[in-house]
Write a structure and sequence with these properties.
Length: 498
């Protein structure tokens, strides 16, 4: 056995980031096996400045540098690296290449009310058919419109817009690039014409000059700058444009060898979707709030953003702040013992998007809908997990109607699958098997694209086969589904599109 290639992946999430080394082993029989090692972990905490919430982008840069230096100190020798993160957020550079202010956090309140204003100005149907993106308050289009509406001087002096992974790659290499999958999250990129929507930019008073021509996943962007090499005292490394939107990296790592397939990227957010050869742009897809995002290998992802384990995470944080902290294993055990279907919420209700008093928000929803109110952590957790599983069923059935496909089951990937109760509930809710794994799908997909870029993997199909052969996949069958149909009918009346 020999190690054919070593790569470094940075996977950034809303609350923290990790660095992973990927080693692609070539066996004597010609087969390959991927091994991953987590080499660095760090927190990602936003910073409140006055009325605005910002990302601490310089702290993230510091942690990436630690990750690069640490990889070599631990004896690894990666020749490439890639960065993936959440979508939509960005930084602006001036003509000298300097960052203009701190990037805003997608939960910053500056976009409140702006989706309705922009949609009325442009036309809701036109905006969807020209972007294919679900109307979410944090979309890049609304963030930029907020700057334009407030007459922010930032837009006037901006020379380039770089989405989060692109901005960090720039800080490490000095090279400006716009990665394609991230560009498609902005609602300013036309997926049919494969270009920035200049008429829309002009209509909103946004400068088109700041938008770079996107490069596709697998493009080698360039090398670490000589300043970074000298600072970290490491050999040169090349930056690869991976599926820089973490969802697209995660989808690249789904071990689905036959299509069509349905997937759920499960974490703070839930992204339920399927892979298509072209975008699905229709008024029905708009009504059902599905997005079309560019994917790895020229594919498109038809997907729906669903609130995820954020609701449970916020409840847990609230209990900890009150000195009533409870670990996830104990919380899951209590949830399993709690009464089924006692309380249900609609996870995508706008009230569950914000921070703070999450248990109070759940109580209010239950009171407004005439349900019993959860009384303890186990009941809150069961309410959240059952509601998520039912929402997944609702979105899956909507997607089947849109595509005409009958999916044989659901591939679940991401950190949320460590909650096996959620996986089991999901299988019971949809009445089909759930295949869970891998957990670190975004980091693995990041690595796979690097190996495709360097020729170690032939294409995405071979890369997915490599995942299936290298990582355990757990199957949850749709057994003991008593009561789920009645619960679904009740849930369906709680205020989301059918």
């Amino acid at each position: 056995m020999k190690t054919a290639r070593t790569a470094l992946a940075f996977d950034l999430g809303a609350s923290g980031g990790r660095a992973f080394i990927g080693r692609l082993h070539a066996e004597e029989d010609g087969s390959k096996r991927l091994e991953t090692v987590e080499t660095h972990r760090f927190s990602n905490e936003p910073v409140q400045v006055g009325t605005h919430l910002h990302w601490n982008i310089l702290q993230l840069l510091r942690e990436l540098k630690k990750g690069i230096r640490g990889a070599y100190r631990q004896g690894f020798e990666p020749t490439t690296f890639g960065i993936d993160s959440w979508g939509v957020d960005f930084g602006l550079l001036d003509a000298n290449g300097e960052l203009i202010g701190l990037p805003y956090h997608y939960r910053d309140p500056q976009t409140e009310g702006l989706p309705q204003e922009v949609n009325a100005l442009v036309g809701e149907e036109r905006l969807y058919l020209e972007s294919g993106v679900q109307f979410m308050p944090f979309n890049t289009i609304y963030q930029l419109y907020a700057l334009a509406k407030s007459a922010s001087p930032k837009l006037g002096i901006a020379d380039a817009l770089l989405l989060t992974p692109d901005l960090l790659v720039y800080m490490l290499t000095g090279i400006r690039a716009c990665e394609y999958t991230m560009a498609t999250t902005t609602a300013l990129y036309n997926p049919e014409k494969m270009e920035w929507n200049k008429p829309l930019l002009d209509r909103l008073g946004l400068p088109s000059k700041v938008f770079l021509e996107p490069v596709h996943p697998g493009t080698v962007i360039g090398s670490l700058s000589k300043e970074v090499v000298a600072e970290l005292q490491v050999p040169d490394m090349r930056a690869v444009a991976v599926g820089s939107h973490d969802t697209e990296s995660a989808v690249a790592a789904i071990p689905a060898l036959n299509g069509p397939f349905a997937y759920l990227v499960c974490g703070t957010w839930s992204l339920l979707g399927t892979e298509l050869s072209e975008p699905l742009l229709s008024t029905e897809a708009m009504r059902l709030e599905f997005s079309n995002e560019g994917g790895v290998g020229g594919a498109y992802q038809l997907l729906k953003n669903i609130m995820g384990l954020w609701i449970l995470q916020e409840c847990k944080r609230e209990w900890e702040e009150r000195g009533e902290g409870i670990g996830y294993p104990e919380l899951t055990e209590q949830a399993e013992q709690a009464e089924p279907f006692r309380s249900l919420i609609q996870p995508d209700d706008a009230r569950f998007f914000g921070q703070g008093d999450m248990t109070g928000r759940i109580r209010a929803f239950c009171e407004e809908t005439g349900q019993a109110v959860p009384r303890n952590p186990g009941e809150f957790a069961r309410c959240i997990l059952e509601s998520l599983a039912l929402r997944y069923r609702q979105a899956l059935e909507q997607m089947e109607r849109l595509t005409g496909a009958d999916y044989s089951g659901l591939h679940m990937v991401g950190g949320g699958i460590q909650n096996k109760l959620l996986c089991r509930f999901t299988a019971q809710a949809i009445g089909k098997p759930v295949w869970a794994g891998p957990v670190e799908a975004s980091a693995i997909g990041n690595l796979l694209v690097q190996f495709i870029a360097t020729g170690e993997c032939r294409d995405l199909q071979e890369a997915r086969r490599l995942v299936a052969e290298s990582f355990p996949i757990e199957t949850f069958e749709a057994r003991d589904a008593l009561g789920w149909q009645a619960a679904y009918e009740r849930f369906a009346g709680y205020g989301q599109e059918g």
